[in-house]
Design a protein that fits this description.
KH_dom_type_1, extended, 19% strand, alpha+beta, 44 helices, three-stranded antiparallel sheet, single chain, mRNA binding, 44 strands
Length: 1240
């Protein structure tokens, strides 16, 4: 037990005074002065051993108060799934990425919970779920649903109890499902069924069933009663502030619901236990009968506007009257025009109640004070100072200002309202003397100029004349500007605003279109150039657009004459800029750039000055060879010639011209100049210059070293020749005697162009033979041609050379259709249409009876089978509407649920309307189609399969049976499990059924082979091995036993901690494999039995160094000598004893190695301890109490000293490896052996 010591000033003074008194009176020397113990100086607080209700000891009560425990936010739940309820029973994949592991991983990702699986000895599944409560509950529900086989059951409870199972917003149902890990299906409110269906595990179903029955039983005990009592007596039952009804609820335990006064309903609802409800009804009826017998009423007329004061806030005033007099006040509805108030109560109490009603009606008055609307804000004052002063003095007065109205409303107690009215009227009179206002109508387009940039103009006027100026917002579209303030200031401000408007009316705004690239040049560096322009035209405002707007409009505003002058000046400036902005790029070899610049930039500076141009050279790091010259065109050309002359002087540069047709230039340059760039790079960086597009010039210039120029010239001419061959052109008129818009141009190799020209001429000639014809088709046949998205018309167009057949629009009542196309094709299409019409005229309808349940099978996937019949036999097949209720006659129970997507094939066939399929077409074709249709009707055959194999044939979630049904295009019906039948029915087309039967029998053979194999694999053999060898057989992290399992394909199970036979190891698998695995384990055990264990004493201070960081060093030693080394546990009796286990000769070598390590590490430990002794600090008190010859008068005070204090205990030795082990190397790591963890 721990106690908390508190040293109070009193206790400290008491101890000190006691010591001093003893010293002074007795003359006892300081060395012999009494020193109290720690417990005497700091006594522990008393324990609260009294009764729970005993509060006599206040400190004990404070310290002994129960501390509310904090619940952990993370919980762990463990539950088991028996073998017979496991959904996935293939143990070979357990823990190795099997289905169960995949499912758990998916659940962990979606819920955030941590899931661990383990396999019990009986092959049951143990599942541990860790996480937050809601995550664990959701994860558990999903695990049970996905890893455990599901059963279902029903529980019947009264329909009216279903809503209590669901709970508010379905919360109770969700809680039940999470708690029981089951799915609960409650029938809809319009469903008369009483049964609630529960799906889940057996355990979950039992829990859910129990909880649902508990809820129903609890509701059976409850009762609901409705009392219809006159509304006027409800206030007497509720009482003042609803106190009476609350007392009734507490006394009886029932819940009483009285409708509010605003709801005109007489019904009072009482719910609760039956006895409590009966008691509450009797009490309410007693109150009702008493008040009905004793009360009477009086009516009074009170002004409608005063009614709210009688009611009070939230009806408090009515409750006060009820509480003091016991009289109910009935107020007319607010939307009613009635002013009559009815008081109901005992006759002797009606008088006082009436007095209170009148008092409350007159307790508040409403007064209106007239004040100009523009004065309202001045009456309120800055930040509400004026009005706040009034409301602070008279807090019960409510003052309301209405925008646009010249009145102020005051509401509150009569005396205070009168005082407030006087104060507000005084403020109004004072303001009317000191203040004035005027309004000026100014065009809205000038408002922003009046305000100025950031409000500069309007703020100056406000400060200068001490006025307020109100300019309407843009959305108001009003031109009325209001000025308020001192009368003299208002007039001066008005005059200045009018003058500003007059000046602006005489102003002119002009927009100049200036390309944005010139804006920065006109403005200049830091705005120097535009400042010169503004200084020249000071009355003109020049506004440039924001660079982000990408606008070219520069706005000028000011006096008309000045704006015109400024515009002319800027136009001239811009023209000069445009003229000087001509740009020319000159390719110069990179190595000559420095010569063009000259020493200290002399050459380039000279060229710039002589030609007045701007010359930009690429940076040294750039790969570009282009020098850009900007200025007037003739100046740029002169600068170019000077630069080229420098290059020619420095190198043997040749310039050559080649004549290539202009139409080939683009193809020679290539996409983004790729072709010409390749030639320039290949020929030592020569420069090839093509004339500008649209110039019409055929001359291409090549400049560079002589040899490279010739090479580039050859390549360019060769490329031009190839392009010339591939650019043969021919032209063709699409329509003779038509304008040039109908000209077709063909470009390519000559032979290909000639061939294409010939084909196009043939097509054009055929187009000349196009005709348009019409024929009559009765409107009743139109639908046949245009239905199915015009399929018949598409077939006609494909068959007869693209003939276009146009039918009249629906509703035109025309029977004439139009055909367009080649003459022969149109005639053939007309004959075909006539044949189709004759077929339609000769159509008959044949009925074929096929049970409705086979219709889907007859149709095939997406109706492919029926479409094939209609195409092959040129007929129309119509299926009847589906009749879902045909199987059930009125009053009969519905059939049992269908399995595998189909009903039982044994049901008898009774002809119904929904079974008739109609075939329309020619008689002989209908008969053929009927035969083909009946051939598609499924047949049913029985296949005998052992009942035990049914669930394997069905597969997980029916996957196996579905796969067979899809593969063989049949329906397979497996009997219900409770029937224990061996007959499986296969339904489908004859050929498919035969294939399915063979496939099913093949599957049975596979399953039987699997069963036999499973029986062979289930052979078990036991071996008795001393438990002390189990960890070594398992190996580090299970490495040894995993290798045995892998080598021999067996399952090896070790006994659990609680098993009686701790020495029995069970091996499962094929008989031969188990025998081999047993031999391997026996061989391993015999090797282990030969091992010996020797103890060696090593200084504990060296243990941490020998073990190493995270046991790395000791593991290396154990692997090197093939031994097991065990260090003592902390707190052991012999901390230096280390046990070494292994073969005799190896153990001795390992012990020698350990002793050598100890000797090496002890040198370091001894040196560290020696240094620590010199480094220790001196004693705080000079080495002891007796120091200084016993004279302490001049020394420092010893302070307060106690004996046996906790801080007097020996401090830990910081140089000790035992007290302070090396990080990462624990004294006794949990798993340092290659033989695995130690088992207890």
């Amino acid at each position: 037990m721990s106690s908390v010591a508190v040293l109070t000033p009193e206790s400290f003074a008491e101890h000190r005074s006691g010591i001093k008194d003893q010293e002074m009176t007795g003359g006892v020397p300081e060395d012999e002065a009494y020193i109290p113990t720690y417990l005497e100086a700091f006594p522990p607080l008393p324990e609260n051993k009294g009764a729970p209700g005993d509060k006599s000891g206040e400190p004990a009560g404070v310290w002994g108060s129960k501390i509310r425990p904090i619940k952990a936010s993370v919980i762990t739940q463990v539950f088991n799934v028996p073998l017979e309820e496991r959904r996935y029973k293939d143990n070979s994949q357990f823990g190795d990425g099997g289905e169960e592991a995949k499912v758990c991983l998916d659940i962990m990702q979606r819920t955030g919970a941590h899931i661990e699986l383990s396999l019990a000895k009986d092959q049951g599944l143990s599942i541990m779920v860790t996480g937050k409560l809601d995550s664990v509950m959701k994860a558990r529900k999903e695990i049970v649903a996905r890893l455990q086989t599901q059963a279902s059951a029903t529980v019947a409870i009264p329909k009216e109890h279903h809503r209590f199972v669901i709970g508010k917003n379905g919360e109770k149902l969700q809680e039940l499902e999470l708690k029981t890990a089951s799915k609960i299906a409650i029938p809809r409110s319009d469903d008369p069924s009483l049964n609630i269906r529960i799906t889940g595990t057996k355990e979950g179903i039992e829990k859910a069933r129990h909880e649902i029955l508990l809820i129903s039983a609890e509701q059976d005990k409850r009762a609901v009663e409705r009392l219809s009592l006159e509304k006027v007596f409800h206030p007497f039952i509720a009482g003042a502030h609803n106190r009476l009804v609350q007392e009734l609820c507490q006394e009886t335990g029932a819940r009483i619901s009285i409708p509010p006064p605003s709801l005109h309903k007489d019904e009072i609802v009482i719910t609760g236990e039956k006895e409590a409800v009966a008691l509450a009804i009797s009490r309410i009826r007693a109150i009702y009968d008493e008040k009905k017998r004793k009360t009477t009423t009086i009516s009074v007329e009170v002004k409608k506007s005063q009614h709210k004061y009688i009611v009070g806030p939230k009806g408090n005033s009515l409750h006060e009257i009820m509480e003091t007099t016991g009289v109910s006040v009935e107020m007319p509805p607010l939307d009613s025009g009635s002013e009559t108030i009815i008081l109901r109560g005992e006759p002797d109490k009606l008088g006082p109640a009436l007095t209170q009603v009148y008092a409350k009606a007159k307790s508040v008055m409403v007064v209106e004070v007239t004040a100009p609307a523009w004065l309202h804000r001045f009456i309120i004052g800055k930040k509400g100072q004026n009005i706040g002063r009034i409301t602070q003095q008279l807090p019960k007065v409510h003052i309301e200002f209405t925008d646009g109205e010249e009145r102020i409303c005051l509401e509150g107690p009569t005396e205070e309202v009168e005082q407030a009215q006087v104060q507000i009227q005084d403020i109004i009179r004072d303001l009317l003397v000191r203040m004035d206002y005027t309004e000026v109508n100014i065009d809205q387009r000038f408002h922003r100029h009046l305000i100025g940039k950031n409000g500069a103009n309007i703020n100056r006027i406000k400060e200068q004349y001490k006025v307020s100026v109100w300019i309407p917002q843009e959305p108001d579209r009003s031109g009325l500007v209001r000025i308020e303030g001192d009368p003299k200031g208002v007039q001066l401000a008005r005059r200045e605003l009018i003058e500003m408007v007059q000046r602006m009316e005489n102003e002119l705004t002009k927009d100049l279109i200036v390309e944005q690239k010139f804006h920065r040049t006109i403005i200049g560096q830091k705005g120097e150039k535009i400042k010169e322009v503004r200084d020249k035209f000071p009355e003109v405002m020049i506004n440039f657009p924001d660079p982000a707007q990408k606008s070219d409009i520069v706005q000028l505003r000011g006096p008309k004459n000045e704006v015109e002058k400024c515009a002319k000046f800027l136009a001239k400036l811009i023209a000069d800029l445009i003229e000087n902005s001509f740009s020319l790029s000159v390719p110069i070899f990179k190595q000559f750039h420095k010569n063009i610049i000259g020493k200290g930039g002399a050459n380039i500076k000279k060229i710039r000055e002589e030609t007045t141009t701007k010359i930009d050279l690429p940076t040294e790091n750039s790969n570009s060879e282009m020098i850009v010259i900007t200025g007037r065109k003739n100046h740029c050309e002169a600068a170019r010639d000077k630069i080229l002359a420098i290059q020619r002087e420095l190198a043997n540069i040749k310039e050559s011209e080649v004549t290539i047709p202009a139409k080939l230039h683009n193809s020679l340059i290539g996409s983004k100049g790729c072709l010409v760039r390749a030639i320039m790079e290949d020929c030592g960086g020569v420069h090839i210059h093509f004339p500008s597009e649209g110039s019409g010039s055929d001359r291409v210039t090549i400049r560079g070293p002589v040899v490279e120029v010739e090479r580039a010239k050859r390549q360019l001419l060769q490329l031009a020749e190839e392009k010339q061959v591939n650019n043969f052109t021919a032209e063709l008129q699409a329509k003779p005697n038509e304008p040039e818009q109908e000209l077709i141009t063909i470009v390519g190799r000559e032979e290909a162009v000639r061939l294409a020209q010939k084909e196009l001429e043939t097509l054009v000639k055929n187009l000349d033979d196009m005709v348009e014809d019409s024929m009559v088709v009765e409107t009743r046949h139109h639908r046949h041609f245009v239905c199915r998205r015009g399929q018949v018309l598409r077939e006609l167009a494909e068959e007869y050379g693209g003939v276009a057949v146009s039918f009249p629009r629906t509703g035109t009542h025309s029977d004439r259709i139009t055909l367009k196309g080649a003459k022969d094709c149109v005639e053939a299409a007309k004959l075909r249409i006539q044949e189709i019409i004759e077929d339609l005229e000769a159509q008959v309808s044949v009925e074929v009876a096929v049970p409705q349940r086979y219709h889907r099978a007859v149709m095939g996937p997406k109706g492919c089978r029926i479409q094939q019949i209609t195409r092959d036999h040129e007929v129309q097949v119509k299926f009847p509407e589906r009749d879902d209720n045909a199987n059930n006659t009125a009053g009969q129970e519905p059939p049992p649920p269908r399995e595998n997507g189909d009903a039982s094939p044994e049901s008898e066939f009774v002809l119904r309307k929904c079974d008739i399929i109609t075939i329309s077409g020619r008689t002989e074709k209908c008969e053929l189609a009927k035969i083909a249709l009946l051939a598609l009707v499924p047949v049913t055959e029985d296949v005998k399969v052992s009942f035990e194999l049914h669930r394997y044939i069905i597969g997980q979630k029916g996957s196996g049976i579905r796969k067979m049904m899809e593969e063989y295009e049949v329906n397979i019906w497996v009997p219900q499990p409770e029937q224990l039948s061996d007959v499986i029915k296969v339904t489908g087309q004859v050929a498919n059924v035969e294939r399915a039967k063979l496939g099913l029998l093949e599957r049975v053979k596979e399953l039987q082979a699997e069963q036999e194999d499973r029986a062979l694999r289930s052979f078990k053999v036991s071996i008795s091995v001393d438990p002390k060898f189990h960890p070594k057989i398992i190996g580090r992290k299970g490495a040894v036993i995993s290798q045995i399992r892998k080598d021999h394909d067996v399952i090896v199970q070790f006994p659990d901690k609680g098993d009686e036979q701790q020495d029995v190891i069970v091996i499962s698998g094929y008989e031969r494999n188990t025998e081999e695995a047993r031999s391997a384990i026996e061989l391993l055990v015999s090797t282990l039995q030969e091992m010996v264990s020797h103890d060696v004493h090593l200084d504990p201070r060296t243990h941490a160094r020998i073990i190493g960081a995270r046991g790395k060093a000791i593991r290396k030693t154990m692997e090197e000598f093939k031994v097991d080394i065990r260090f003592p546990q902390p707190g052991s009796e012999d901390p230096g004893r280390v046990t070494v286990t292994g073969l005799p000769e190896i153990v001795d070598n390992a012990i020698d190695h350990l002793l050598n390590l100890e000797e090496e590490y002890m040198l370091s430990v001894t040196e560290t301890e020696t240094m620590a002794a010199y480094m220790k600090p001196p004693s705080r008190y000079g080495g002891g109490r007796g120091g200084g010859g016993g004279d302490n008068s001049g020394g420092a005070a010893k302070g307060f000293v106690v004996r046996d204090a906790p801080w007097n205990d020996k401090a830990p030795d910081m140089s000790s490896a035992e007290d302070f082990p090396t990080f990462g190397a624990g004294l006794a790591p949990k798993q340092t052996s290659a033989w695995g963890p130690k088992k207890f």
